[in-house]
Amino acid sequence: MLALPLRKSAWALVTCLALLSSPVVGVADAQPVDPAYQSVIAEAVGEFGAGHWAEARALFKRAHKMSPNARTLRGMGMCAYELRMYVPALRELQGALQERRRPLSGDQRTQVGALIGHAANFVGRYRVSVTPADASVTLDGKPAQFDPGNLLFLELGEHAIVATKGGYESATQKVRVEGAENSELHIELMPKVVAAAPVAAAAQPAQPTPAAPPAEPAPAPAPATEPEPAAEERGPGLAIAGWLSIGVSVGAAIAAGVYWGQAESELDELGKICGPGSPSMRACTQAQIDATEVDKIDTVATIALVASIVTGVAGVTLLVIDSTLGGGDSDTASAGTRVKLGPGALSIEGSF
């Protein structure tokens, strides 16, 4: 019995000798050997002996297609084991034990059994069940390959098992294989939730619309009359505004007088600066004038005078309009003003 694990040159030497010592055609076979097949087998054994596992596996697979038998399966499985492809190695080595064409010798069966036991340490073994049972299953994006008994063999590392079926939500199961797992795995799909379509309301027969009663003739419109303005809208508002304007005019006139007096005072000061007997600014230089504020005071006095005149005229105008709108109404006139026009004179009487 061969000791395991055997690697590199020692393992290759022992295996190569075992392959070469195994007759291509056993006594039990008594079958003619195809020269082409025999040539491929010899080349595969040579590559295996050189440690070229991928090349040897490709040649054993070619020979297996030419003549499937236990010896070619054994060679394929041994190469897969050396390449650390443990799942294919298990399948091919187990197939070699079961194959009856050119069966393995006793020593070869012992060797293959030991390899199977060793490769199983690096494979996860899962018995998978899916609900519903006819769902499609993929492993890492490819269709999952199940062995008899719904067994799924997984290599070392991370894997994603996805189950899908029309009308169901897909389900994903992630598995991490560290070696020698032997477990059951159940994946259940949930039906997709379909939103219920709104039920259309049954069409109701159209109810006849009751006829509207005949419209009554509209009453003839009353003759339009001019509404009389209210007393408070005619006189007092304008009268108040007029008196306010006159008050502002009086205030502006007083201010103009005050500033004019101040301007005269500044002129006297200029007279002292520019020399005695100088009642105006004509004898003063611009620098002497700028030394006082007579220009500014004179300007302000002028503005105040103009404002007094404008507001006075506006106030009188408003009082005249108020008197005109009063129309002789004794109540309104008493609350407002009375204006009398004479030749060359304007007389205003009223109360505030």
Uncertain regions: pLDDT < 50 for 5+ in a row?
Answer: 1-10, 23-30, 229-233, 327-335
Structural class: alpha+beta
| Radius of gyration using CA atoms only | 62 Å
- Whole-number mean pLDDT: 78
What is the quaternary state of this protein? single chain
How many distinct domains?
A: 3
Major beta-sheet overview: 4 strands, antiparallel
The shape, in one word, is elongated
The termini sit apart by 138 Å
> Per DSSP, what share of the residues sits in E-state strands of 2 or more residues?
5-15%
Order of neighbouring strands in the sheet with most strands: 3-2-5-6
Order of helix and strand elements from N to C terminus: HHHHHHEEEEEEEHHHHHEE
Helix content: 40-55%
Number of strands: 9
Structure annotation, total helices: 11
What do you see in this structure?
With 352 residues, the chain is of the alpha+beta class. It folds into three domains: 8-121, Tetratricopeptide repeat domain (Serine Threonine Protein Phosphatase 5, Tetratricopeptide repeat, Alpha Horseshoe); 124-188, Immunoglobulin-like (Sandwich); 232-350, no CATH class. The protein has helices at 8-21, 35-49, 53-66, 70-82, 86-98, 106-119, 231-234, 236-274, 286-290, 294-326, 330-335; strands at residues 124-131, 136-139, 142-143, 151-154, 157-164, 171-177, 182-188, 337-342, 345-350. Strands 3-2-5-6 form a four-stranded antiparallel beta sheet, with no helix packed on it. Strand 2 (136-139) and strand 3 (142-143) form a beta hairpin.
